[in-house]
Amino acid sequence: MRILLSWLEDFVEIKESPRELADALTMAGMAVDAVESEAGETVFEFDITSNRPDAMNHLGMAREVAAIYRRPLRAPSTACAESGPPAASKASVEIQAPDACVRYVGRVFTEVEVRPSPDWMRRRLELCGIRSINNLADLTNYVLLEIGQPTHAFDLDRLAGAAIVVRRARNGEKLVTLDGEDRDLTGGHLAICDAERPVALAGVMGGQATEITAETRNVLLEAAWFRPSVIRNAARRFKLFTEASHRFERGADWNAAPQAADRIAALLARTGPGQVLPGQVDCFPQQPGLSPIRLERADIRRHLGIQLDDAEVEGILSALGFEPSSDSSGWSVPAVSHRLDVERGIDLVEEVARIHGFANIPATLPSLGAAPELTPLAAEDARMRAAVRGLGYDETIGFAFISSDEAERFGSGDPVSLRNPLSQLWDVMRNSAVPTMVRALEWNLRRNQPFVRLAEFGRVYRRSEASYEEPSVLTLGASGTARQASWAEPAREVGFYDVKADVAALLAPFVPDAPSIVTKGVPSYYRKKHAAGLTSEGDVLAWFGELDPELARERKIRQPVWVAEIFLDKVYGRGLRRPTHRKLARVPAVSRDFSLLVPDAVDFASITEAVGEMPDLDGVEPVEVFRGKNVPEGSYSLLLRAWWQRLDESLTDEEVNEFAAEVRSRLQSRLGIATRT
Amino acid sequence: MSIEHKTGRPIDELIREGEDPELLYEELRAAFEQERSKASTPQQGQALRDRWLGRRSGLLSATNDHWLKAAPRELKPVVGKLQNLLRRDLEAAVKAVAEAAVQEQAQAEPDLDATLPGPERARGAVHPVRLALEEVLDIFRPLGYTVAEGPEIETFFYNFEALNFPPDHPAVDEMDTLFLKDGALLRTHTSPCQIRIMESKSPPLRYVVHGKVYRNDTPDATHSPMFHQLEMFAVDEGITFGDLKGTLEHFVRCFFGPRTQARFRPSFFPFTEPSAEVDITCPFCSDGKCRICKQTGFIEVLGCGMIDPNVLRNAGLDPQRYQGFAAGFGLDRFAMLKYSIDDILLMYQGDARFLRQFR
Ligand SMILES: [Zn+2]
Predict the structure, then answer these.
(1) Strand A151-155 relative to strand A219-226, pairing
(2) Does A353 sit within 8 Å of B119, measured CB to CB?
(3) A350 CA to chain B: closest CA distance, Å?
């Protein structure tokens, strides 16, 4: 919104420099975006919040200036010489929809002549960004900028019956608006009609049939007040956003309507040619009720933390156009039609605060009040994030939208669909975070990144009964080399066991014993037999493995891609394991190696299970797994190492040999595997 | 074992016969010197040491007792003394050989190139939005604030109605809000959490709420349909606008630097009254002449205000008894300001080259 300094000065005295004035207005809530100097005029560019339609004009802005500096406000002159028969004898106004149109003021001008406006008016309009059209159109625009009241000029001779009827349109009625568009009206639309047909879309745009032309001699001027929601719906319905609809839908002032009509009359009388018929045709069936507002003195301190003098409070409110009357506990303040946004005591507190100046309210700190509440799962989350970082995964965040096709392939159940999605690729909320991760991996592989490790902490979305669930998932993605390539070490491709180790490391602080591995029930977007899950007490805590190569190929990924999903709700729900110190042994552990030829069908877990429990047995580990040369097909060679340890004393060779013999015998008897020596 | 004299007879015999021990020891010394002169590598130095001074089988140790026993009574002290002298000298000599050898070998090795990089260790990046979030939380936690997140799929009531939005507010429109097919919606801000927390807890409340929010915006360098918001609020008896100012002034100084000043400008939000926008003095220039502050010296960073009594009432609190303040901002924007990121979409592509800058 552009405001001219010289125009403000018509209504209030200004002693400050433009920069000082701009700062003062900004700090009172009228944000000045720019101060420009154009053709010798100072122009302010304002960004006015939607709750302040009253300030979207020069008089309203001058009222703000008057309040800030406590200077008198001068109203624009409406004095005007009237002549001829009364206006009411030449035109009639009737409101048939008083719920939508509260007031309609008509003014009649005769013997007008359409011609260019005087230079001073054209100049002001143009500095405000409005193109000059002719003296009548310019007058309405000028007063809109001056007072904020939208008005409309009809060619009175083209109004059937010289009548204005404000009513709901009838189904099937049509109107050609000023922009040349045919508009089909229905019963919901508020129309300005003459005795026969709609002639304007109320509060939005006039019609072609009754517009001012070069031949116009007699004019009916409309200054009305429409209910904001009616105008907003119409503007939206017709996608027609005009200066008029902009003001009306934010709320105009019904008392500004007669003022604007008189101001136009006065200006017309001054700039001519034209005759102003005496009186207004003012249809105002019922003045809307305005409740008195209660402002308690104590509430000012309660909300702002400071106490203001009565004189200052009253000075501010009066300057803003309120009429406060004080009593023992505060003020009674009638609501005013130019500030419909002010309805409650708190609204008046805000008015007082902003004119007093937020900068003049001292900064304090609230007391703690009570012992702060601990944030649930904060420790769990911090530990997990630190661990993910430590493993070298770069944290990423992806969009939570995926396509319904992806939802079907990566998730289960009815997906959460958007009614107005941004695109068909983003039409559902993700029910799995894997597609998001695959997109990120794809992005990096397309950019030839040789080493990619990504981790995303995020949610997935699904229905649950009548509502929704948004469980948290940690998704890992890995591709390329196992470590960032270096001259000092040969590169190796990342593989299943790298990802497994990472997942196990991340779960370790939450799961006291090693979680069990499952290979059944792995989702189908993982490559068969190259993926697994980790479970604990029946809960799947994680899935991990290679992405199905078919899915990868569809996304133009031509190298193995590894993914893991860690279900954080389930993991965090277990809580962080509290570490407990166990006494350290004073003597080193003793080991024995076993060379085994194992059938493929027997996995490592079966071997440790077969070895089982044994006193002083400290652990069993695979030292070497080998297939191929010299190993018969259908089996693999395993070098197994077992460790024994006793807390306080050394084990003798004889003891350990006995233990080793027991291991051999268990492997033989339980799995039929002979140890080779 | 014993050492033979050059005549081929064992030395202990010669000692027993009264041969001059000094001469005999001189000869021994000469024999050692000859072997020593040939030792140049650390391995040879070690071998020399083992042969002469080895604890059990070294020549000197092995013969020690023999010679002393063999010596005639009157010569015993002399033999003992000579023996100690010899041992001392031999030990010094062997040590010198070893040191010389190590030094020589070190000189032969090329210097390592300390400027070559060590192989890179794993260290993951923190996403810039998370980085900014952690910084913010580190400021509010010590002030007694609890952290919460809340659901992203919200109801119309929590997202708009309870927050005092009029039913025909433009934000309610499909042009701004993403709706689900059943009428639920993706929260457009973190404020619904205010209501949820006020409904379920009693004051005093000090909360920081953060998380993803959604708008029906076509992606470009400054718009993303999904971004992150953070909101802090406090509800208690006796909370004032002054408290809001003090809290936020402290916050922007901590986050943007100790010289940062906050300016509170009256503004408008449906859920606060009075409402303010906070501008900070530009942390990137001192003269108000940079691109980031658009030559104004100020940057608008957050919106705030006293929680509107209607909102307190909608959440079941008595506005006659309690007041509260709230402030909210975009974490993406904070991260972009602080880490000089010029395109919001970089945040959501997962480009490792971008992310690794935040390790
Ligand atoms: Zn700057």
Answers:
(1) antiparallel
(2) no
(3) 5
Of B180, B226, B250, Cβ closest to residue A416: B180
Helix axes A58-69, A18-27, angle to 10 degrees: 90
Q: Which residues of chain B neighbour A417 with C-beta distances below 8 Å?
A: 180-181
A101 and A239 co-located in one domain: yes
3-state secondary structure A572-584: HHCCCCCCCCCCC
Class of domain B128-358: alpha beta
pLDDT one-digit tens code per residue, A222-266: 999 999 989 999 998 899 999 999 999 989 999 999 999 999 999
Strand segments (E) across chain B: 146-148, 153-154, 185-186, 205-214, 226-236, 262-269, 272-281, 298-307, 323-330
Which of residues 161 through 220 in chain B touch A, CB cutoff 8 A? Answer: 168, 170, 174, 178-181, 184, 186, 203-204, 206, 212, 214, 216, 218-219
Judged by a CB distance cut-off of 8 A, whether residue B157 touches chain A is no
Residue B315 makes CB contacts below 8 A (sequence gap 6+) with B162, B194, B195, B198, B199
CB proximity A349 to B under 8 Å = yes
Same domain, A352 and A423: no
Torsion over CA of A33, A37, A41 and A43, rounded to 10 degrees? -10
Q: Note the pLDDT tens digit of each residue in A625-661.
A: 999 888 999 999 999 999 999 988 899 999 999 999 9
Checking DSSP bridges between strand A92-95 and strand A163-168, what pairing results, if any? parallel
**d(C-alpha A150, C-alpha A103), whole Å:** 13
Given a contact cutoff of 8 angstroms between Cβ atoms, the answer to whether B99 and B329 are in contact is no
Residues of chain A found within 8 Å of residue B359, distances taken between Cβ atoms: 394
Same domain, A350 and A489: no
Task: Return the domain boundaries, chain B.
Answer: 3-108, 128-358
CB pair distance less than 8 Å for A393 and B124: yes
| Local structure of residue A177 (DSSP, 8 states) | B
Do B224 and B238 contact (CB within 8 A), yes or no?
no
The structure's pTM equals 0.85
